[in-house]
Amino acid sequence: MPLVKMKEILAHAEEHRYGVGAFSVASMEMIMGAVSAAEELRSPLILQIAEVRLKHSPLHLIGPAMVAAAKEAAVPVAVHFDHGLSEEKIHEALETGFSSVMYDGSHYSLNENIAQTKKMAALAREYGATIEAELGQVGGSEDGSVDLEVLLTGVKEAQAFTAATEIDALAVAIGNAHGVYNGEPRLRFDRLEEIHNEVDVPLVLHGGSGISEDGFRKSIGLGIRKINVATATFNQVVSTVNKNAPFTDYFSYHEQVTAAAAENVKRHMRMFKSDGRL
Ligand code: 13P
């Protein structure tokens, strides 16, 4: 099965009304775990890495590994650059063969976000890649370094933004946050429904770690097609490794990392109902 465009994966999810997990990876072990989970469950997969994570996993090293793993997977896999902030890195991801990029201009004013997103969308299209963008502000931050307030995505703004930028997927802020939630996440399904009624592109839910199965079910019912999961996988790897430590050799540690990543990916795929779709 070839590396596919994220747009194709999302179109299948839209047709059959389910959600697709976009799982963040930081190492070859995590890539292998995520792909094996998707193959075992016969689920499509989005493999992703965010720009802020490149200080730990440089793009020129992990990017080719993600693309290679996608190309030889037995299920459709899209390789996505998450929270692209700079044109330089978005360009590098596209050159590496990523089939999708997110441009995150959510910190700008609406007009500036539109202008920058249009530029990055044009660049992505030159490579035949899918483009995701964000409007409103998801809480927390991708690497836990900043504690941003949630600013809900406005309905009229979402409509104007998607029309002006012609993006393929829109990340919304509906009370969701990156990292660990303080207490039970309170998602604004009323706002999600309003956006879904007015906007005609697949919607993306960031901050998937810690949302309940019921929260996912309702979100998917209201147009969410891509769900980002990062912290839950990193935490599962760390807790599994801690539980089984001390290790006497590197390779049993390596296998635990791969298996723990796979477990978390499978758990989420089942909640998103993307299993058994192929
Ligand atoms: P979590 O770390 O909360 O799962 O968020 C992941 C995410 O949204 C990446 O963009």
UniProtKB/TrEMBL annotation:
**Required cofactor(s):** Zn(2+)
Known InterPro entries for this protein?
Answer: Aldolase_TIM, Class_II_FBP_aldolase, FBA_II
Q: Which SUPFAM superfamilies match?
A: Aldolase (SSF51569)
- UniProt xrefs under NCBIfam families: cbbA, PRK06806.1
Write down what this protein is called: Class II aldolase
